[in-house]
């Protein structure tokens, strides 16, 4: 059931509001964990999966 909820509401959960402390710690939320869903997030995800999380390197 949780898997279905996350599949159908993934964009709702990813577009959450940010606290001031999170913005300060992460340099205006530029990391993949706190950045809002959009082009920037998609590009970060592609980079992480192709370069950093690739097992062949």
UniProtKB/TrEMBL annotation:
Gene3D superfamilies: Cytochrome P450. Keywords: Heme, Iron, Metal-binding, Oxidoreductase. InterPro entries: Cyt_P450_sf (IPR036396). The keyword Metal-binding applies. Coiled coil: none annotated. GO terms for molecular function: heme binding; iron ion binding; monooxygenase activity; oxidoreductase activity, acting on paired donors, with incorporation or reduction of molecular oxygen. The keyword Heme applies. This is Cytochrome P450.
């Amino acid at each position: 059931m949780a898997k279905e909820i996350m599949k159908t509401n993934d964009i709702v959960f990813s577009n959450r509001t940010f606290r001031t402390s999170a913005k300060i710690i992460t340099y205006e939320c530029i990391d993949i964990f706190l950045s809002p869903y959009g082009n920037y997030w998609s590009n970060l995800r592609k980079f992480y999966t192709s370069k950093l999380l690739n097992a062949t390197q």
